[in-house]
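Saturday, quiet lab. Running sequence design on the structure tokens for the scaffold JK sent over.
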């Protein structure tokens, strides 16, 4: 057990040790109490104290020490005052047990300061039997012998000169003597050379009335010369009419070993806390931080002193969805309130520079006087970033114009993105679960088998050009890159395909081949220069492309290789690159003999002789003007596609995805600015009758007119979207529930009074509308949609063609 002195010197930066100290406190065989010194409240008691006093732990920890100590309360208070002032730190008191029995105890008390508060830490020994023996020695030798022989302690009586005149059997067994042999020895024969003078001095001090501990630790020597630690009590008494010294001792070797083991564990735990990559902090009963480890300082970007001063309270904390977290939601506050562990609370911490650190926080309450909550904080920012990237990648895959799909090793389609739909004409629902062979022309069926054989063997296929059949029967040229997909153990479980339609490119290539047989095998412009960059050769394509004959350019340096005319490239300057022996690739604006400009893609490589020396440079150039124009066209198309991605194709309204996106933004804005927000959910009543009676084409026209009628009634700031089928929603910024209800009723009447042109019979169109508003404790737009949907179905169940509002209980 750590000494009283060591406990009292504990500082906040050594607090990791207290988890070990608590274990020691709870499980130690000695009786231990922590006492509030002013009133005498028992704040904490270990298991040994509970067993000794006989009270349940909860009751014992609500009692005053005066209720146990049978001395008058004034005398008990005076004794506590002396302990606080350190005039002495041991006492002998009569303590009453729960059974009513009174026991004599020796109390070792020492003041300890924990977080600027003083407590008394008391270790208590039951010395009732020892006191009885001392009294028995004084009163009756026979009674003493009976008590001594039944005692588990070693008992010796020595003359004033130190010669043993009595020894009990247990003393002889401990020391390795027979009783007869032991009576032939002297006290100094048993004591360590340094311990015997201390024993003599304490006996002398006791006789003089000086304060001496009743029990202390010493080293005793056995007959075989070995030493062992012992707890010793010495007092002056009378034996056979002579003044003698009564010495009672017990072997505390096992206790010492246990203390050493606990101290070693304490040091290991302390080192572990300091080395842990997980942040650790401790709160006291007043919710002040009293310990943080280096990992937490690093995670939060705060100094040790700033954390202990509570500066962390000035930070902004975020929920998992990015909204601001209130103090009541903190893991530590919840654990304090609920008195049980709170785990895996994902919390964003906004640093002073605006950077957000995402953490996973656990808080566990402890039952210890100066510890209330232990908190662990793990930095999960990288995981959050990875999750965001996965979500972003999924969105990119889904919205990509390129073909992206995956199949089983048998060719069954697992995933099908928008690019595949646009390229092949099949929707995702039409293709998932079907065989990829649907797309393959009959004459190329063996090709698919060969592809999957390579994939099964782990061989990827890059930029494989082939032909596929669209849903409309038209065949297109595609370039496919197919790779194996492996599980966590490296086993190939599926394949992924990325591709694009190259039909137009193929068409252009065919045209080029038809325009000139001379360039059929060399469609690129080729130039060869010497090591100085002077032209030695150009092919016919160069002449055709640029208008120069070989005689006009031989011996000249191309503009691309002049250091005073660097090209607009996406790679480093070409001349230095190729002179260093590397290939250069880039794009630049070239000029023909007639002054016309065109975009060229060039690849320039050095040619080496057998000794590795550069002898020439070869430049392969391609006119990419059309591609650049196509890229610009694609960029323009992408802008249009982004617009289409937010629009419902049938009604021209916002589609569900874009409506939800706007809904999330409006919800956050209303929460942030404390503005009202309302939402309408509308459903066309008995719309199935329209489709069944007039067909889906008329039904589509009716929905389009329904949407146009809604849009005409609404304000410009209102957000109208089609959620699916005949279901619509309207988000009303800065609108109360009552105003929204009035608007909904006007919409209902407008729809009911509108004649829908395509309906050849008198089939009236009405709508049921659910109305809700933003209430406290809502977490997102989904809550509003759910409430509005509930109200809408109440309207439908109530007879349709009506408005119902959702009212919070």
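Result came back. Writing it out in full:
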């Amino acid at each position: 057990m750590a000494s009283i002195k060591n406990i009292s010197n504990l500082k906040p930066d050594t607090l990791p040790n207290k988890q070990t100290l608590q274990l020691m406190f709870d499980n130690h065989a000695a009786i231990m109490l922590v006492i509030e010194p002013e009133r005498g409240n028992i704040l904490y008691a270990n298991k040994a104290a509970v067993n000794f006093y006989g009270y349940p732990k909860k009751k014992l920890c609500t009692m005053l020490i005066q209720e146990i100590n049978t001395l008058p309360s004034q005398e008990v208070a005076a004794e506590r005052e002396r302990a606080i002032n350190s005039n002495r730190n041991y006492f002998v008191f009569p303590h009453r047990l729960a059974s009513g029995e009174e026991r004599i105890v020796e109390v070792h008390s020492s003041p300890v300061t924990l977080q600027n508060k003083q407590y008394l830490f008391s270790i208590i020994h039951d010395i009732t039997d020892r006191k009885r023996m001392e009294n028995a020695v004084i009163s009756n030798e026979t009674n003493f012998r009976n008590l001594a022989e039944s005692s588990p302690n070693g008992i010796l009586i020595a003359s004033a000169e130190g010669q043993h005149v009595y020894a009990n059997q247990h003393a002889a067994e401990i020391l390795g003597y027979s009783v007869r042999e032991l009576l032939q020895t002297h006290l100094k024969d048993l004591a360590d050379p340094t311990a015997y003078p201390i024993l003599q001095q304490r006996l002398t001090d006791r006789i003089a009335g000086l304060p001496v501990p009743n029990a202390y630790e010493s080293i005793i020597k056995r007959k075989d010369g070995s030493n062992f630690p012992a707890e010793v009590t010495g007092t002056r008494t009378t034996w056979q009419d002579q003044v003698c010294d009564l010495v009672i001792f017990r072997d505390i070797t096992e206790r010492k070993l246990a203390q050493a083991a606990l101290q070693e564990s304490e040091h290991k735990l302390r080192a572990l806390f300091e080395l842990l990559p997980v942040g650790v902090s401790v709160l006291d009963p007043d919710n002040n931080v009293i310990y943080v480890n280096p990992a937490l300082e690093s995670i939060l970007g705060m100094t040790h002193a700033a954390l202990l001063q509570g500066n962390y309270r000035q930070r902004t904390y975020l929920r998992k969805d990015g909204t601001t977290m209130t103090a009541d939601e903190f893991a530590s506050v919840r654990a304090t309130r609920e008195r049980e562990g709170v785990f895996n609370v994902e919390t964003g911490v906004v640093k002073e520079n605006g950077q957000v650190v995402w953490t996973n926080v656990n808080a566990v309450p402890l039952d210890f006087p100066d510890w209330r909550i232990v908190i662990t904080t793990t930095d999960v920012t990288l995981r959050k970033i990875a999750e965001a990237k996965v979500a972003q990648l999924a969105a990119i895959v889904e919205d990509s114009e390129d073909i992206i799909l995956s199949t089983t090793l048998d060719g069954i389609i697992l995933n099908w993105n928008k690019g595949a739909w646009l390229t092949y004409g099949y929707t995702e629902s039409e293709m998932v679960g079907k065989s990829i062979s649907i797309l393959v022309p009959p004459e190329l069926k063996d090709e698919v088998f060969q592809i999957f054989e390579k994939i099964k063997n782990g061989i990827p296929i890059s930029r494989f050009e082939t032909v596929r059949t669209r849903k409309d029967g038209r065949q297109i040229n595609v370039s496919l890159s197919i790779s194996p997909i492996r599980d966590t153990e490296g086993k190939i479980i599926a394949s992924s395909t990325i591709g694009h339609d190259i039909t137009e490119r193929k068409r252009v290539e065919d045209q080029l081949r038809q325009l000139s047989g001379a360039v059929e095998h060399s469609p690129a412009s080729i130039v060869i220069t010497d090591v100085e960059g002077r032209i030695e050769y150009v092919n016919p394509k160069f002449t055709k492309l640029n208008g120069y004959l070989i005689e006009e350019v031989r011996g000249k340096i191309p503009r691309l290789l002049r250091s005073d005319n660097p090209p607009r490239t996406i790679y480093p300057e070409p001349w230095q690159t190729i002179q260093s022996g590397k290939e250069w690739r880039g794009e630049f604006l070239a000029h023909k003999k007639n002054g016309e400009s065109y975009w060229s893609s060039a690849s320039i490589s050095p040619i080496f002789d057998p000794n590795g020396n550069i002898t020439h440079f070869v430049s392969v150039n391609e006119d990419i003007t059309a591609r650049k124009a196509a890229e610009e066209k694609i960029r323009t198309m992408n802008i249009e596609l982004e617009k289409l991605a937010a629009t419902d194709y049938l009604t021209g309204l916002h589609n569900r995805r874009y409506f939800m996106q706007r809904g999330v933004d409006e919800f956050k804005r209303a929460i942030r600015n404390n503005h009202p927000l309302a939402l309408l959910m509308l459903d066309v009543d008995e719309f199935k009758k329209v489709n069944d009676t007039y067909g889906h084409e008329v039904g589509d026209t009716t929905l389009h007119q329904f949407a146009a009628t809604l849009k005409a009634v609404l304000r410009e700031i209102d957000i109208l979207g089609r959620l699916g089928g005949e279901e619509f929603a309207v988000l009303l910024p800065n609108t109360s529930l009552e105003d929204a209800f009035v608007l909904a009723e006007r919409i209902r009447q407008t729809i009911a009074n509108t004649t829908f042109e395509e309906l050849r019979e008198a089939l009236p169109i009405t709508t049921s509308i659910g109305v809700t508003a933003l209430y406290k404790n809502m977490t997102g737009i989904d809550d509003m949609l759910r409430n509005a949907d509930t109200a809408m179905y109440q309207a439908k169940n109530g007879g349709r063609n009506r408005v119902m509002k959702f009212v919070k209980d």
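Notes for JK: The first strand starts at residue 31 and ends at 35. The chain has 29 helices and 31 strands. Ask whether to fix the surface positions before the next round.
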